[in-house]
Write a structure and sequence with these properties.
Layout: E1 5-9, E2 15-18, E3 23-26, H1 27-36, H2 42-52, H3 70-85, H4 95-107, E4 113-117, E5 124-128, E6 134-138, H5 140-151, H6 154-157, E7 162-167, H7 174-185, E8 188-194, E9 203-206, H8 209-212, H9 215-224, E10 229-230, E11 240-244, H10 246-253
Parallel strand pairs: 1-4, 7-8, 7-11, 9-10
Antiparallel strand pairs: 2-3, 5-6, 9-11
Amino acid sequence: RTQTAVVVKVPNNLLMEATHGYGEYPAKSLWGLDGQEKKRGELVKDGVSNLFGVMPLGHIYAGIEEMKDKQQTVNLVAMGLTAKILGKESSNLSGWDLWRLWWGLRQLREDEVEIVDLRETNAVIENSLPDGTLVYGIDLFRLSSYSERWFKDEELVNNSARVLVINTTKVAGLGSQAGRGLTTLGMHVVGIEDGGDDLVSTEIWVISGKLKNEYITQTLSKFFEVKPKVDEQIGARSEIVVKLGRDYQRRIKGDY
């Protein structure tokens, strides 16, 4: 299929929800908070996941302030790769993964790399702090329409498996948040419910061993960081059931 890349530029002063219960921080401050708390990129990764509803597989820190074109995108990955070779903590990706990303970006034509500034969309809202500092908020409903266009995976769209999300925790809205992310990726979410046992760990149940090995289940496994299990009796409403546990709650909302 056609290979393309989308680079979304997030304003430094966009207020983002820092996961694990840290509250709102300007985007530019997430890296510093992450380093201070020794989270190894986890706050940045989960913050981006919450914002766009996607599942970042990795992060690269290269200190580039502005991304204007394809070449600067290639340069960022090259800097991350060089730092990795020199033994610096620039990315959670392996050297091999960084090289593949760098090589893949180099092969794309200029018109196959879309550079998007969030400030130029109608999803960003200007606000002011009490001291007059300009900050940006986000309209997640509007942003979802952009995210689905930028990040939807056609292989997931074309998979007919239906997904039911059940929030077993006491935190309201957790199921909707997870469902939004899965829908953004292109999955067919047929329901979001609250109830069941207050699970310690998130569970993914699929209706067959064949489905367990398919791309959609592998994607869910990466998204929730849990291995799927097979239950041929999970019901007629869906072929996949995701039961959110307290591990996902802590990752997104912190301890309650």
